[in-house]
Design a protein that fits this description.
By secondary structure, the protein is mainly α. 62% of the residues lie in helices and 6% in strands. It contains two helices and four strands. The strands form two sheets. A two-stranded antiparallel sheet has the order 1-2. Strands 3-4 form a two-stranded antiparallel sheet. A hairpin with a 6-residue loop joins strand 1 and strand 2. This is RUFY4 protein. GO terms for molecular function: zinc ion binding. It comes from Pygoscelis papua. Keywords: Coiled coil, Metal-binding, Zinc, Zinc-finger.
Length: 165
């Protein structure tokens, strides 16, 4: 009987030792899992903070875009109004000028001291002629004698007589 008791005691001691080892392993596993849980909570808090910051920035950007869009729509409305004003003004001016014959454009400025074509200075020996069509002042070299009608500048003569060019 004592031997059986010794075997049971030895088995109990072995089971107790194994239970202590398992308990210690489980405690280590609990500590490791608690550390992981703590890290996961910290990561979750960081991600939540980053998400809140990103949402706040997105709302700010959306508000800025809305304000910019409102400004652009107001600008477009103003531009359309101005365009309508300009179109009305153009129509009014067109109606005023509809019956007016437009004179032929002058080939150059009407500066009394210079030829309208070659810009030569009129002096004692270089005579000044008035073009009978555009009223420009031209020198002898830049004008054409049209007979009884008088002289006209080369540009007007070429416009009236295209076959001469």
């Amino acid at each position: 009987f004592p031997q059986r008791l010794a075997t049971l005691a030895a088995t109990a001691w072995e089971e107790a030792r194994q239970s202590r080892q398992q308990l210690q392993a489980q405690r280590q596993e609990v500590v490791r899992l608690q550390e992981q849980l703590s890290r996961a909570r910290q990561d979750g808090e960081r991600w939540a903070s980053a998400l809140q910051r990103a949402q706040r920035e997105a709302l700010e950007r959306e508000a800025m875009r809305g304000a910019e869009q409102a400004r652009q729509q107001e600008l477009i409305r103003d531009m359309k109004g101005r365009l309508l004003e300009l179109l009305r003004e153009k129509d009014a001016l067109w109606q005023k000028t509809e019956g007016i014959d437009t004179p032929m454009p002058s080939p150059a400025s009407h500066d009394a001291g210079l030829c309208a074509r070659c810009r030569k200075d009129f002096r004692l020996l270089s005579r000044r002629y008035n073009c009978r069509l555009c009223q420009g002042k031209v020198c002898h070299a830049c004008s054409v004698d049209t007979g009884k009608q008088g002289r006209c500048c080369l540009l007007c003569y070429q416009q009236r007589h295209p076959q001469a060019t």
